Amino acid sequence: MQWHRRIFLTVALAVVGALAASAAWSQAGRTIRLILPFPPGGPADAMARVVAQQIGDAGGASMIIESRPGAGTEIGTEYVSRAAPNGDTLLVMSNSFVVLPHVRTLKYDPLTDFVPICELATFPPLIVVNSDSPHHTLGDFIAAAHAHPGALTYGTLGPATASQVAFEMLKLAAKVDIMFVPFSGYTPAIQALLAHQVTAAQADLTTLQGQLQTGQLRALATTAAARVAMLPDVPTVMESGYKDVEAEFYGGVVAPAKTPQSTISQITRWFSDAIKTPAIKAKFASLGFVPGTQCGGDFGAIIRKDYDNYGRTIRDAHLQMH
Is there a domain that residue 196 lies in? Predict the structure, then answer.
């Protein structure tokens, strides 16, 4: 009996080892779809492609980008929420992930229907004016808004987007009346600013790099928590006297809820390792991105914090999705 038991245990261990090796190989060799809930060609698309390429080059999974835009990112996000929780389908998300639930009834919950993987990059948001504007500091701009309620305007992506919410945070903190002018994208908003159709605009550094370098625009402040490395002389809104105004634009990856923890751990390692590489840091710097630093539960804490902060601002400012 002991002889038969030893043979049985030996065979069983061999089978278990083979299955484990097979599973690991299957996970490493599979193709993963990164669902982009935005039109192709924007910062999130560029971010996802750069990181996916790095993961593939390093021997991780092969990743393909699939754009499913529409309804303010709702279509692509809902699609991933319903995907099989096996690691084959992931969502590339941004701040809209936690803004949309406060302005629209959705068929998914960003806090319970997804598992956070990694924050891949941040896109520093900047408040800018024309170079010939009389407003040289954020203080000048706010003082003018107090002196002329409702006369100043700002343009950004909207309505009821993370971009508008970030600016509304400032308006609430400074107790000013500045008219919001919505645009379908950052580029049209900047074109309107250059044409003097709005007083100020807010957009990410990637969009603004060219005009800032040529001196067409002047940055007054960033709503990010820290100064932008490429613009060390531009203060944060918090440094300008509004300590509760912090809004960072970011892009990250989440998976459908109930994805096995072993799969989540493997995927997290791929993304975490990729964004730490010198190649990614250099590429991101050229694009005006800052590599992400948070993964797993730490990234989940960022999502939860933004969900609460954006929700409070949306309620206080009475923002609506038109």
Answer: yes
